[in-house]
Amino acid sequence: MTFTAVKPSDASPFGSPIHENSEAEVRALISKAQEQAHTLANLSPAKSAALLREIADAIESQRAALIESACAETALPEGRIGGEITRTTVQFKLFADLVETGRHLRVVIDKADANYSPAPRPDLRRQNQPLGVVAIFAASNFPLAFSVAGGDSASAIASGSAVVAKAHPSHPNTCAIIEGAVKSALTKSGLSTDLFAIVQGTNPQITHWLAGDPRIKAVGFTGSEAVGRILLDISAKREVPIPVYAEMGSLNPVFVTSAAIGERSEELAKGLVDSALLGSGQFCTKPGLIFIPDNQKEFLLQISAHLATLQVGPLLSSSIASRYGAAIASLAQAPKVQIFSAKATENGFGVTPTIFVTDWSTAQSTQGLLEEHFGPTTVVITAAEKDFVKIAGELQGQLTATIHGSASDSFTELLSILAQKAGRVIWNAFPTGVAVTEAMQHGGQWPASSTHTTSVGIDAIYRFMRPVSYQSFAQAVLPPALQDANPWKVEQRIN
User: If I label 397, which of 121, 195, 287, 327 is the partner at 20 to 30 A Cα–Cα?
Assistant: First the structure.
């Protein structure tokens, strides 16, 4: 059985037919990865770092092919795809810098102490070790940075875990190029290509075969809440449940004060609209709820005027475009809702960017207004500024939450509540930019994420590792990182 990629720009087929993997083939890939997983887990920090850098170089060597393929399969501009390639290689290099130090192993040594209180303690040594084989599910909206060799796979490989990744059917040829690059790097590093494999197909059962296989020890996922819940359900029903690290999107509320509008209304209006429409509104950090004070008619006019000048690229797939169209049509029928529109994109999976304006009471009582809609839309909600704190307390968990204010504003209480709701709180900026750095937290409270971990930055590695303590073993038996001689020269915290 085969399927073919589709170009969002004109809905025409792209590339040759792609083989869809059967259940037997998926199981075989997992089995082969499990057989070789120990070779990756036992690499020294230096060799692990070398592998990660080799992968980055192999991906960079395919830049031209990746740009051609990804631009065709997503209709995203070349600049965006080029930036994603760079981000993908940077992620591998950042993890290389980390694992080279051995700091990710978090080695702790407490030597035997007969005088320890309240009782004598034995020799105890703890380190992190990889989980084994993990399943990674590629995201539709980032064909490289969050795809089969995106942050999830990079952090998993850096941890020493083997990867079986589900390619996204919206960009299967791009995924195949990446698979070839990673396998080339494994070969150059003297490792089996079975340590990294992708699974292709449109069959929904592939998700169940992967996440339900007893040899899979964890799942990394970026996508919709609906699929995230399916993965969590599969995990819970397994004989041995496993962690599912699901990043499932967010409304990313933005609170705008009167003082901020008074200082920079035109700049704010343009910035908010541009952020909501960035990438055709297909970012998980898109501002989906924008709260502004009552009686800001001029500000709303500025939003409407800027929106009317804009047009966005087609959406990533026919299914995304269909869901967007249905959602917009339904919300347009809601009472007490004002509609602002941009220019329509007619070809392929094109849509019309639309912004809805209403009050908080209507938003609460109207189905769909407080739900995430993937695509170029957002909801502007008017409310008394004094009610911002109360409204924030009624929102669900979020990836991000933003305050646009002035130095004269008193926002401590609002910030405190938003910090309880979101993984990242932002002051006078826009959420649609996720820096790949150690301090970044990309993950929030449910339902934005299934755990409190991050899927961006080097701390993402710890999702695919677990701590193990070794008690009273002879030096020759201990893993190298735990030995007194410290042959790997890793960071050790002793006593």
Answer: 327
